[in-house]
Write a structure and sequence with these properties.
Blueprint: E1 2-11, E2 14-24, E3 29-33, H1 40-47, E4 55-60, E5 63-64, H2 70-74, E6 78-81, H3 93-101, H4 109-119, H5 121-125, H6 136-148, E7 154-158, H7 166-183, E8 186-190, H8 194-200, E9 203-208, E10 211-217, H9 218-223, H10 225-232
Parallel strand pairs: 3-8, 3-9, 6-7, 7-8
Antiparallel strand pairs: 1-2, 1-4, 4-5, 9-10
Helix pairs in contact: 3-6
Length: about 240
């Protein structure tokens, strides 16, 4: 479904991604783990066209999207829940969800709204509340629900557990698993919480300083001593 080859991204003269090769197959949950500053979020944003890749290619369902504008990528049934949530804080929960549905012209708005409220019942209770007044966990639910309102086939999730209490983290990861199992949603997950991410994932990649250094199934990576030392036992 998503194929990345030789991807290089720069910030000015600084090379943030140094030739990335990776694949996300239809129906999979694929996770990318790595330390802060490794380039994980840069990869996620490059897939969506901002920043623009300088070298290499990004192919989605056989179509080269490397040079497409971000708004055109969003219309290809790809949605992103970005790092830091980036909801619209002055808008209500309902209005934020409307923004997600605008991508497909509100074609199935009532049905998709009900689906979002079924997945995250808390959002239904907060429907008329401004996004900026929600708790961190509720804002993360809203960011994911807003992405789902566009009916994506590929969902990009950037650090969904960041700064959340363990109980909320479990709830978020349970939702991701359920969407994948029941609806066949393909998920590419960037995550610092390596244990939860690799337990959830079919396959995973490890990024260090803008390079993919390891790949394998989630189970294989969980058992690798270097992964355990760096990401699961308090290492860096």
């Amino acid at each position: 479904m998503l194929s990345i080859r030789g991807l290089q991204t720069f910030y000015g003269k600084i090379c943030a991604l140094k030739g990335i090769d990776m694949d996300v197959n239809e129906g999979e949950i694929v996770t990318l783990i790595g330390a802060n500053g490794a380039g994980k979020s840069t990869l996620m944003m490059t897939i969506f066209g901002s920043p623009r890749a300088r070298e290499g290619s990004i192919t989605y369902e056989g179509r080269d999207i490397t040079r497409l504008p971000t708004h055109e990528i969003a219309r290809l049934e790809i949605a992103q829940s970005p790092e830091g949530r980036r909801i619209f804080p002055r808008m209500t929960v309902y209005e934020n969800l409307q923004m997600g549905a605008a991508i497909n012209g509100f074609a199935h708005f009532d049905r998709d709204l009900e689906r979002a409220f079924t997945i995250f019942p808390r959002l239904k209770e907060r429907a008329q509340q401004r996004g900026g007044t929600l708790s961190g966990g509720e804002q993360q639910m809203l960011a994911i629900a807003r992405a789902l309102m566009s009916r994506p086939r590929l969902l990009l999730l950037d650090e969904p557990s960041l700064g959340l209490a363990p109980l909320i983290v479990k709830q978020i990861f349970d939702v991701i698993r359920d969407l994948n199992k029941t609806e066949g949603l393909t998920v590419f997950l960037v995550e610092q919480n390596a244990f939860h991410a690799l337990k959830l994932a079919d396959r995973g990649y490890v990024m260090v300083n803008g390079l993919i250094t390891l790949s394998g199934t989630g189970k294989e990576l969980l058992s690798r001593p270097e992964v355990r030392a760096a990401y699961l036992e308090g290492g860096h």
